[in-house]
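pasting for the record
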Amino acid sequence: MAKTTTKVDIAEVMEAVQRDDGTGFCRACGNEQECCEPDAEAYTCEACGKPTVYGAEQYLLMFG
């Protein structure tokens, strides 16, 4: 698993889970990314290019 340098606000993750709109979060740069499956793991970040994007639900389970 890739290491992170940026913390994503868990409140933002919870809001994304409640919206259920396909939001993912990058553990490397904190980017909020669209079109992610809820259980997405290691998607490539559109902002930094690293494979560290997780769907909101998966992020919450793994890192929340």
